[in-house]
Recover the amino acids of this structure.
């Protein structure tokens, strides 16, 4: 069991958790992720390690509730516990002194990009960050990103904060202004990452994206997370999750992510209509841990 | 106590059949296919044993289970003693009784088999192991006084489990680290419920826990902690690497990325470990097989397990596509027969050349080519050769690739001083299972390549002996 030490919403449907996992906290590097299974009957889902605190023995994850498992996770509070957390998985981000690095985060992608932005800054890069969201209230980690960036640009789809427009517009502006960009890191929805790749390709700017295929084990044992990169098959969980954006086949990635659509829909609907079954399972485990005499039947 | 029959009488008894769930019924459920022998039937079967002076079956068993002696105990009605006798050499009798390829091992060497059917040693082994479990009187051996030495075991498959059991009895402090959330390796994520109920594996693991083995799930050695850290920071004195050969192989054919194309490992992990066959109670999905065409490519146990799982998920047509003939199939005979009885269609001497899909990226068909068997190669097997212009398309919704697996690489990549061969398997001494790194041993599939449960278990035992010696003498 992995106890939740802190839980708070950063934005509607986006929640930050600090989870006790000392071994993972100690070893994790920017760009790596964990696989989480909330309870005995749950599925395994990957979540990026946004931060860690070695002294407290905690890792931070930021979760966007989009389906059954993430919404259930976002119902948990400080004091609840997660059944399984395994990691750190994946290859760490490639961090070096590149020069000027533009870090782009779309939606919850900002939380995934954040640790690498910090590492890039620490490595002596000039970090320009562009974070985007649908609207003001969905912006996350604005202060944290500002603190680790030489400049921070905010873009919203509706203009309710920062500049009205997409993150790619700001990137194009920077390129137009003659900004010498040595590297771009873009993390967000697939169409956003693809759009960024299209912007940087003609300028030959090295662009890295973090891919989010469906995973199971996260250790290279199933091949479910396979992605097509430069016409080669790669396993995102062990070879990635970061790849050269100009080589990624985004269409295949998007298509593969629709594989379980109807089961996900069914699971989501039945969960929303009665979340108590899942919640009970988690809270009950906690009760049982403290009072082993409470048998499996009690609730 | 029953007396042994005279030899002539023994050979008159026909081999007793294993009661099975009806093939039409079982093809739609995940309950165990074989139901186990009744007591009287088991005794009758045991009576068929010729009690050879130099029992060939024992030589046929990779770990040398004292078969003649345990069969004697069955005849005497001493089932618990029979189970204890097996446990002297084999810590997972309820598992091996179900999944060993007996036809190539003990039963393959049985003298009865020369003129009659061989003694059903596997079924008898299962019978006594189940009897023992059912009575709850598992004869757990005594533990030696604590030695104060710590051993880390990486991987909880049969190799890791048997090594853990032996070492804990010698008084060592044993921790098993497992990357997944469940203990058992292939026994829980690969072999399906209908062949090896997970309850059985859980019972065996509980026995080990009672003996004092500490199990830590969710620890990926090489990621969460490295081997060097186990020694330097966590105070372990020896490490046994038993990480298996779980890396899926694909065929590098066009269309392999299509939705509906699975590795057998993913398909089986979703079905077994994540329980995707029970969507009312478990969250992990599996792509729909119901009323669809499903094919598995390959002819081993993994292939049979995958296609029979697909059948149980409701497949309309379930095919095995295999590039050689049925004779050459590496799967256990019993599984091939069971698959056929359940309605699996065999496309032997066929090989896929391309997966075809629609605009949405989903599989719609596989292009197959017919094969014929050419002359024998060095290994003595006739190699398959494609027949020119024999291609045709087979409509398909799900394709499962079961053409083998490779070495799990995560430990090796962070422990460069553990030497590997050109395929990535760990190099270990045949006799001692020592690797090139002091204090580190390796065994099971990660050394041998994909093999069998019993061989992995045997390796675990060898490693335990060798680790104990190292810990006692301190000599490398
Ligand atoms: C390496 C990696 C890091 C990630 N980091 C974060 C993060 O820090 N914060 C965050 O909010 N999300 C992150 N994700 C995405 C997150 O894993 C999915 O949103 C989550 O699995 C959805 O599960 P669900 O049941 O809530 O939704 P579902 O209804 O099951 O699915 C919604 C969509 O999520 C995707 N998805 C479903 N199951 C999985 C799975 N097992 N693995 C991956 N994707 C899946 C599919 O595209 C699906 O269409 C990451 C994904 C990857 C691969
Ligand atoms: C579908 C299928 C059916 C089979 N059927 C049969 C059969 O009927 N009869 C038979 O005899 N054999 C059968 N086999 C083969 C048999 O299961 C294997 O030979 C045997 O399980 C090998 O045992 P092992 O202990 O070496 O490894 P495994 O059983 O593979 O266990 C290795 C364990 O190590 C874990 N691990 C890997 N890397 C790490 C890491 N870095 N850190 C921590 N843990 C790690 C894995 O998660 C796994 O749990 C079958 C195999 C498969 C896949
Ligand atoms: S998630 Fe299974 S191989 Fe990557």
């Amino acid at each position: 069991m992995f106890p939740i030490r802190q839980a708070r919403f950063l934005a509607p449907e986006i929640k930050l958790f600090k989870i006790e996992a000392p071994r993972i906290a100690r070893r994790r590097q920017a760009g790596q992720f964990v696989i989480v299974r909330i309870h005995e009957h749950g599925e395994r889902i990957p979540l990026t390690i946004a931060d860690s605190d070695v002294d407290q023995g905690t890792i931070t994850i930021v979760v966007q509730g989009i389906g059954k498992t993430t919404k259930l996770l976002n119902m948990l509070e400080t004091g609840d516990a997660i059944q399984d957390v395994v990691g750190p998985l994946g290859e760490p981000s490639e961090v070096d002194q590149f020069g000027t690095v533009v870090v782009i985060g779309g939606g919850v992608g900002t939380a995934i990009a954040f640790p690498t932005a910090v590492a890039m800054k620490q490595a002596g890069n000039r970090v320009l960050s562009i974070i985007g969201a649908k609207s003001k209230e969905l912006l996350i980690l604005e202060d944290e990103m500002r603190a680790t960036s030489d400049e921070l640009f905010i873009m919203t789809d509706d203009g309710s904060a920062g500049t009205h427009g997409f993150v790619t517009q700001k990137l194009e502006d920077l390129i137009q202004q003659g900004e010498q960009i040595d590297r771009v890191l873009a993390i967000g929805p697939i169409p956003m990452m693809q759009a960024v790749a299209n912007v940087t390709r003609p300028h030959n700017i090295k662009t890295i994206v973090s891919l989010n295929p469906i995973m199971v084990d996260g250790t290279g044992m199933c091949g479910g997370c396979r992605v097509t990169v430069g016409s080669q098959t790669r396993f995102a969980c062990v070879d990635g999750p970061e790849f050269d954006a100009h080589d990624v086949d985004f269409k295949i990635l998007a298509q593969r992510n629709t594989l379980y659509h109807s089961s996900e829909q069914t699971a989501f609907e039945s969960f929303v209509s009665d979340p108590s079954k899942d919640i009970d399972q988690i809270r009950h485990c906690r009760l049982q841990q403290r009072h082993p005499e409470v048998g499996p039947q009690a609730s | 106590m029953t007396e042994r029959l005279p030899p002539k009488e023994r050979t008159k008894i026909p081999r007793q059949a294993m009661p099975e769930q009806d093939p039409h019924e079982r093809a739609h459920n995940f309950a165990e296919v074989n139901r186990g022998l009744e007591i009287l039937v088991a005794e009758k079967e045991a009576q068929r044993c010729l009690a050879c002076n130099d029992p060939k079956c024992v030589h046929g068993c990779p770990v040398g289970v004292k078969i003649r002696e345990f069969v004697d105990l069955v005849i005497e009605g001493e089932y618990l003693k029979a189970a204890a006798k097996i446990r002297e050499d084999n810590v997972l009798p309820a598992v091996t009784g179900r999944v060993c390829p007996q036809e190539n091992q003990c039963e393959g060497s049985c003298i009865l088999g020369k003129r009659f059917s061989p003694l059903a040693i596997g079924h008898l082994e299962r019978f006594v192991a189940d009897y023992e479990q059912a009575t709850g009187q598992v004869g757990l051996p005594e533990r030696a006084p604590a030695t104060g030495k710590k051993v880390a075991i990486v991987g909880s498959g049969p190799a890791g489990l048997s090594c853990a059991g032996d070492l804990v009895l010698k008084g060592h402090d044993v921790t098993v680290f497992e990357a997944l959330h469940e203990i058992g390796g292939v026994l829980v994520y690969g072999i399906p419920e209908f062949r090896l109920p997970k309850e059985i594996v859980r019972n065996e693991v509980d026995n080990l826990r009672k003996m004092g083995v500490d199990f830590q799930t969710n620890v990926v050695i090489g990621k969460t902690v490295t081997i060097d850290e186990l020694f330097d920071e966590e105070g372990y004195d020896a490490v046994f690497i038993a990480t298996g050969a779980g890396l899926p192989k694909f065929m590098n054919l066009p269309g392999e990325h299509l939705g509906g194309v699975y590795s057998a490992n993913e398909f089986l992990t979703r079905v077994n470990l994540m329980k995707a066959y029970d969507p009312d109670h478990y969250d992990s999905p599996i792509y729909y097989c119901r009323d669809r065409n499903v094919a598995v490519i390959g002819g081993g146990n993994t292939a049979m397990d995958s296609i029979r799982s697909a059948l149980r998920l409701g497949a309309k047509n379930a095919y095995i596509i295999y590039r050689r003939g049925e004779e050459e199939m590496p799967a256990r005979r019993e599984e091939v027969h069971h698959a056929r009885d359940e309605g699996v269609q065999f496309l032997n001497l066929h090989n896929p050349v391309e997966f075809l899909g629609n605009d949405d990226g989903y599989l719609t068909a596989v292009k197959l080519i017919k094969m014929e068997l050419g002359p024998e190669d060095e290994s003595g097997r006739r190699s398959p050769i494609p027949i020119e212009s024999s291609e045709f398309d087979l409509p398909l919704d799900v394709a499962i690739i079961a053409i083998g697996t490779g070495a799990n690489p995560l430990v090796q990549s962070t422990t460069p001083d553990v030497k590997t061969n050109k395929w990535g398997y760990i190099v270990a001494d045949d006799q001692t299972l020592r690797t090139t790194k002091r204090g580190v041993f390796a065994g099971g599939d990660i050394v041998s390549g994909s093999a069998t449960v019993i061989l992995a278990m045997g390796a675990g035992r060898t490693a335990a002996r060798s680790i104990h010696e190292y810990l006692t003498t301190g000599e490398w």
User: Anything to note?
Assistant: DSSP finds ten helices and 17 strands in chain A. Confidence is low (pLDDT under 50) at residues 292-299 of chain A.
